[in-house]
Structure formats: structure tokens, C-alpha cells
Amino acid sequence: MRFAELYEAGDQWLADCSPRPDLVRTVWDVEALAPIACGPHWLAAETHLVTGMQMLNRIGEERRGPVLADPSLDRAWWLVPPAAAEELADVRSVLVHRTGHVLHCPPTGWHACGRFWLSRPDGTGLLTDPTVLTAALRLGGYRLPTEATP
Fold first, then answer.
1. What is the distance, to the nearest Å, from the Cα of residue 119 to the centroid of all Cα atoms in its chain?
2. How far is CA 138 from CA 68, 72, 97, 143, in A?
3. Any residues with CB less than 8 A from the CB of 90 and at least 6 apart, and which?
4. C-beta of residue 117 within 8 angstroms of C-beta of residue 106
5. Which residues make Cβ contacts (< 8 Å) with residue 144, sequence separation at least 6?
6. What is the pTM of this model?
7. Assuming Cys at both sites, which of 14, 19, 68, 73 could form a disulfide with 77, CB separation 3.0 to 4.6 Å?
8. How far, in Å, CA of 60 to CA of 56, rounded?
9. In a structure prediction context, what are the per-residue pLDDT tens digits for the chain, which is 150 residues long?
10. How far apart are CA 50 and CA 47, in angstroms?
């Protein structure tokens, strides 16, 4: 399987989150960041990069949606459900960007302009639950319930 085919499902999903998927693909073809607005598909919950990486380690892959990183800005953006804004409103270390805010995204398979996916979109539409995100911020982080542990 070619490298590009590995990430096609994630790229397709991400491009389809834009009203102009063709424009997103064109921008990616020139190895630039595509402007994709928060809105009906997801919102972006912004954290400091180190905080985001710590949370990433606390949340299992099966419960984690896409996470975009930009080391030069010391930022990470977690893609969360559109209804998450209210639930995360009082979490001081998270800034939720609401509908209309543009997130400049690379394709899922490589970095562009210094940005890359810490956790790539996989095409399923999986987003990080805000409850799980909030729990991961707390000391000790998110842990699976004991009955879910094998």
C-alpha cells in the first residue's frame, strides 16, 4: 500500500468538513495549510502543546479524536463535538474555538508549515469527548473504569 493511500480516509473526512473540499485538496497539493472552519462537524479545543501531549498520553487511542500540533506556536488543537463548547467553557486551560473560527490544517499524512497531526483523523469522524478531555487535564489524568480493564 502506498503511503498516500494509508491516510486517504482521514484526508477525505477532513476535506469534507469544508464547504469546499476541492479547495482543501488544491491547497494540500501545493503543500500548504488548508483553512477549515469550525462548525457543524467539530470545534477546536486549544491547549498549550505540552499540556496537549500530556493529555494525549492519558487518553487511549480508541477514545481520542484528531489532535493538531504547532510547536512554533506551542499549541495543540483537539477536535471535539460541536456541543462541547458549553461543557469546556469553564476549563481554564482550554480555549474552545467556536463555529466560524478557521483552523489551518495539513493533510493527515504529512506536516506542512510546521503543523502536524499528533493524532490523525482516520475517516470515521471520531472526536474527543469533552468529558474525557476534561478528566485528562486533572491530576492523574483519565483512566478507563476498572470494569473495562482486561
1. 7
2. 21, 25, 21, 11
3. none
4. yes
5. 60
6. 0.88
7. 68
8. 8
9. 455 666 899 999 999 999 999 999 999 999 999 999 999 999 999 999 999 999 998 998 999 999 999 999 999 999 999 999 999 988 989 999 999 999 999 999 889 999 999 999 999 999 999 999 999 987 554 444 444 444
10. 8
**Whose CA is closest to 39, among 86, 85, 105?**
85
DSSP state of 40: S
Angle between helices 21-29 and 8-16 in degrees, nearest 10: 130
**How is residue 54 written as a grid cell?**
500530556
C-alpha cell at 115: 503543523
